[in-house]
Amino acid sequence: MSSVTASDGLLVLGVDPGLADTGYGAVRRQNGRLTMVTCGTLKTPANLSEPKRLAILARQLRALIAELHPQAAALVKLSVTGYGAATKGQMLKMVQSLLATRELPRSDDAIDALAIAICHHHSGRLRTIISRAPTSVHA
Protein backbone atom coordinates (compact mmCIF):
# COMPACT_ATOMS: atom_id res chain seq x y z
CA MET A 1 0.00 0.00 0.00
CA SER A 2 1.33 3.43 -0.92
CA SER A 3 2.07 6.02 1.77
CA VAL A 4 0.52 8.68 -0.48
CA THR A 5 -2.98 9.56 0.69
CA ALA A 6 -5.85 11.66 -0.57
CA SER A 7 -4.74 14.40 1.84
CA ASP A 8 -1.25 14.69 0.30
CA GLY A 9 -0.37 18.31 -0.33
CA LEU A 10 -3.00 19.47 2.18
CA LEU A 11 -1.87 22.60 4.04
CA VAL A 12 -3.46 23.01 7.46
CA LEU A 13 -3.23 26.22 9.46
CA GLY A 14 -3.43 25.66 13.20
CA VAL A 15 -4.33 28.63 15.39
CA ASP A 16 -3.96 28.82 19.18
CA PRO A 17 -6.08 31.89 19.92
CA GLY A 18 -5.31 34.48 22.56
CA LEU A 19 -5.86 38.21 22.86
CA ALA A 20 -2.24 39.07 23.67
CA ASP A 21 -0.52 36.20 21.84
CA THR A 22 -2.09 34.10 19.09
CA GLY A 23 0.06 31.22 17.93
CA TYR A 24 -0.08 29.94 14.37
CA GLY A 25 1.48 26.98 12.64
CA ALA A 26 1.11 25.66 9.10
CA VAL A 27 1.74 21.96 8.45
CA ARG A 28 1.67 20.19 5.07
CA ARG A 29 1.32 16.47 4.42
CA GLN A 30 3.55 15.44 1.53
CA ASN A 31 4.27 11.84 0.51
CA GLY A 32 2.67 10.67 3.75
CA ARG A 33 4.92 12.84 5.96
CA LEU A 34 4.10 15.97 7.90
CA THR A 35 6.33 19.02 7.46
CA MET A 36 6.26 22.44 9.08
CA VAL A 37 5.76 25.24 6.57
CA THR A 38 5.83 28.17 8.99
CA CYS A 39 4.87 29.13 12.51
CA GLY A 40 4.96 32.10 14.81
CA THR A 41 3.02 34.32 17.17
CA LEU A 42 0.73 37.24 16.38
CA LYS A 43 0.85 39.88 19.13
CA THR A 44 -1.33 42.81 20.08
CA PRO A 45 -0.37 45.78 22.28
CA ALA A 46 -1.67 45.46 25.85
CA ASN A 47 -2.41 49.19 26.06
CA LEU A 48 -5.14 49.05 23.38
CA SER A 49 -8.82 48.34 23.99
CA GLU A 50 -10.10 44.82 23.42
CA PRO A 51 -12.02 45.74 20.24
CA LYS A 52 -8.90 47.34 18.74
CA ARG A 53 -6.78 44.30 19.66
CA LEU A 54 -9.35 41.98 18.06
CA ALA A 55 -9.36 44.12 14.92
CA ILE A 56 -5.55 43.88 14.75
CA LEU A 57 -5.70 40.10 15.16
CA ALA A 58 -8.36 39.84 12.46
CA ARG A 59 -6.18 41.81 10.03
CA GLN A 60 -3.10 39.74 10.88
CA LEU A 61 -4.98 36.45 10.46
CA ARG A 62 -6.51 37.56 7.14
CA ALA A 63 -3.04 38.49 5.87
CA LEU A 64 -1.63 35.14 6.99
CA ILE A 65 -4.46 33.23 5.28
CA ALA A 66 -4.01 35.28 2.09
CA GLU A 67 -0.28 34.49 2.12
CA LEU A 68 -0.55 30.75 2.86
CA HIS A 69 -3.86 29.77 1.20
CA PRO A 70 -4.48 26.91 3.66
CA GLN A 71 -7.04 24.25 2.72
CA ALA A 72 -8.11 23.73 6.34
CA ALA A 73 -7.87 25.14 9.84
CA ALA A 74 -8.31 23.28 13.10
CA LEU A 75 -8.37 23.30 16.89
CA VAL A 76 -7.82 20.54 19.58
CA LYS A 77 -4.51 19.20 20.88
CA LEU A 78 -5.49 15.81 22.31
CA SER A 79 -4.34 13.56 19.45
CA VAL A 80 -0.75 14.81 19.47
CA THR A 81 0.24 13.49 22.90
CA GLY A 82 -2.52 10.96 23.50
CA TYR A 83 -4.15 12.75 26.41
CA GLY A 84 -5.40 16.23 27.22
CA ALA A 85 -3.13 17.08 30.17
CA ALA A 86 0.20 17.13 28.36
CA THR A 87 2.90 19.46 29.66
CA LYS A 88 4.49 22.05 27.37
CA GLY A 89 7.65 19.92 27.32
CA GLN A 90 5.72 16.83 26.25
CA MET A 91 3.94 18.83 23.56
CA LEU A 92 7.25 20.19 22.24
CA LYS A 93 8.83 16.72 22.08
CA MET A 94 5.86 15.19 20.27
CA VAL A 95 5.64 18.06 17.77
CA GLN A 96 9.38 17.75 17.09
CA SER A 97 9.02 14.00 16.62
CA LEU A 98 5.95 14.17 14.39
CA LEU A 99 7.48 16.88 12.19
CA ALA A 100 10.92 15.21 12.26
CA THR A 101 12.64 18.52 13.08
CA ARG A 102 14.74 20.05 15.80
CA GLU A 103 13.97 23.61 14.70
CA LEU A 104 10.84 24.85 16.43
CA PRO A 105 9.84 28.25 17.76
CA ARG A 106 10.41 29.24 21.36
CA SER A 107 6.80 30.40 21.60
CA ASP A 108 4.47 27.97 23.39
CA ASP A 109 1.57 29.46 21.42
CA ALA A 110 3.24 28.67 18.08
CA ILE A 111 4.05 25.11 19.23
CA ASP A 112 0.42 24.64 20.30
CA ALA A 113 -0.72 25.91 16.89
CA LEU A 114 1.55 23.38 15.13
CA ALA A 115 0.04 20.68 17.36
CA ILE A 116 -3.44 21.81 16.32
CA ALA A 117 -2.52 21.52 12.62
CA ILE A 118 -1.03 18.06 13.23
CA CYS A 119 -4.28 17.00 14.94
CA HIS A 120 -6.26 18.05 11.90
CA HIS A 121 -4.03 15.92 9.67
CA HIS A 122 -4.39 12.95 12.04
CA SER A 123 -8.18 13.27 12.20
CA GLY A 124 -8.37 13.40 8.38
CA ARG A 125 -6.29 10.23 8.15
CA LEU A 126 -8.58 8.51 10.67
CA ARG A 127 -11.67 9.55 8.67
CA THR A 128 -10.09 8.04 5.53
CA ILE A 129 -9.36 4.75 7.31
CA ILE A 130 -12.87 4.58 8.72
CA SER A 131 -14.45 5.37 5.35
CA ARG A 132 -12.57 2.42 3.78
CA ALA A 133 -13.55 -0.05 6.51
CA PRO A 134 -16.21 -2.66 5.72
CA THR A 135 -19.67 -1.65 6.85
CA SER A 136 -20.46 -5.10 8.24
CA VAL A 137 -18.44 -7.90 9.77
CA HIS A 138 -19.17 -11.55 8.94
CA ALA A 139 -18.25 -14.34 11.40
Helix count equals 4
Q: What does the radius of gyration come to?
A: 17 Å
Mean pLDDT across all amino acids:
81
Give the biggest sheet.
Answer: 4 strands, mixed
CATH topology: Nucleotidyltransferase, domain 5
Number of domains: 1
Short descriptors:
Nucleotidyltransferase, domain 5; alpha+beta; 4-stranded mixed beta sheet; 4 strands; 43% helix; 139 residues
Write a structural description.
With 139 residues, the chain is α+β, with helices and mostly antiparallel strands. The chain has one domain (11-132): 2-Layer Sandwich (Nucleotidyltransferase, domain 5). It has 4 helices and 4 strands, in the order βββαβααα. A 4-stranded mixed beta sheet has the order 3-2-1-4. A hairpin with a 2-residue loop joins β2 (21-30) and β3 (33-43). α3 packs across α4 (108-132). The longest helix is centred in the last third of the chain and has 25 residues, at 108-132. The two termini are 26 Å apart. The mean pLDDT is 81.
Short structural description:
This protein is α+β, with helices and mostly antiparallel strands and 139 residues long. The chain has helices at 50-68, 78-81, 88-99, 108-132; strands spanning 11-16, 21-30, 33-43, 72-74. Strands 3-2-1-4 form a 4-stranded mixed β-sheet.
Task: Set out the fold topology.
Elements: E1 11-16, E2 21-30, E3 33-43, H1 50-68, E4 72-74, H2 78-81, H3 88-99, H4 108-132
Parallel strand pairs: 1-4
Antiparallel strand pairs: 1-2, 2-3
